[in-house]
Amino acid sequence: MVILTGNKVRIRSLESNDLEEFHQWWNDPEFAGDFASFAPMSFDEVETLVKESNFFMVERNFTDSIQKLGFVAYYNIRTDYPYLYEIGYRTLPSERRKGYTTEAVKLLVDYLFSTMDIERLESVTDIENIPSQRVLEKNGFRREGILRKRSRNNKSGYRDELMYSLLKEDRL
Ligand SMILES: CC(C)(COP(=O)(O)OP(=O)(O)OC[C@H]1O[C@@H](n2cnc3c(N)ncnc32)[C@H](O)[C@@H]1OP(=O)(O)O)[C@@H](O)C(=O)NCCC(=O)NCCS
User: Fold this and answer.
1) 22, 44, 47, 123: which one has the fewest Cβ atoms less than 10 Å from its Cβ?
2) Which domains are present in the chain?
């Protein structure tokens, strides 16, 4: 199991005994936020998603107990491009705006570049998702451009998104 510890949070590989809680989070529209194309999933579907992706639980370090805060994840979006990965993240509504996601993404990004032969990490976010844009910018990701009508959500229809990337050379 991978465990990476920062000042405020730690991230660790998601395990089978997290699945029940993770399934509840996944099916909570507040957890998904205002910009996701929200579609509830069965427990089995969530289990498959977790098996096929790379999710990390974000936790707060307490001396005598651990509090789960959300997740960060990376995905190989094109299997023919092994140097390219996308990252994603969600944090419980009650735990937002405390700097936890920014640090969790930093831990993930450092881990990925130091253990894998990655040239490019990318992340796509809604054009109005300011918190998500800030998380990326604070981790050195650069805004590349607007992807017009790339997503569709239940509340406001087709949405423009922003493409962000972080290259290996950006970190040198
Ligand atoms: C996006 C998300 C993960 C950010 O998590 P977070 O833990 O609140 O992020 P942080 O506390 O690390 O804050 C990062 C920055 O965003 C800012 N921010 C957070 N919430 C904000 C809000 N509601 N309005 C404006 N800025 C906000 C913070 O102030 C901080 O920027 P600053 O340091 O310049 O002040 C969280 O809002 C979330 O889970 N949203 C729903 C899921 C989602 O949209 N995921 C991303 C999909 S691409």
Assistant:
1) 44
2) 3-171 (3.40.630.30)
pLDDT digits (tens, 9 = 90+) for 58-116: 999 766 788 999 999 999 989 999 999 999 999 999 999 999 999 999 999 999 999 99
Q: What gap in Å lies between CA 62 and CA 66, rounded to an integer?
A: 6
Distance CA(19)–CA(76), nearest Å, equals 21
Task: Determine contact, residues 50/41, Cβ cutoff 8 Å.
Answer: no
Q: Ligand 1 pocket, 140 CB below 6 A?
A: no
| Alpha carbon distance 131, 70 (integer Å) | 15
Nearest CA to ligand 1 atom 23: 131
* Residue 99 structure tokens: 């700097």
133 Cβ below 6 A of ligand 1: no
Give me the DSSP letters along 5-55.
E-SSEEEEE--GGGHHHHHHHHT-HHHH-SSS------HHHHHHHHHHSEE
Predicted TM-score (pTM) of the model is: 0.96
Site of tokens 């997290």: 18
Residue type, 58: V
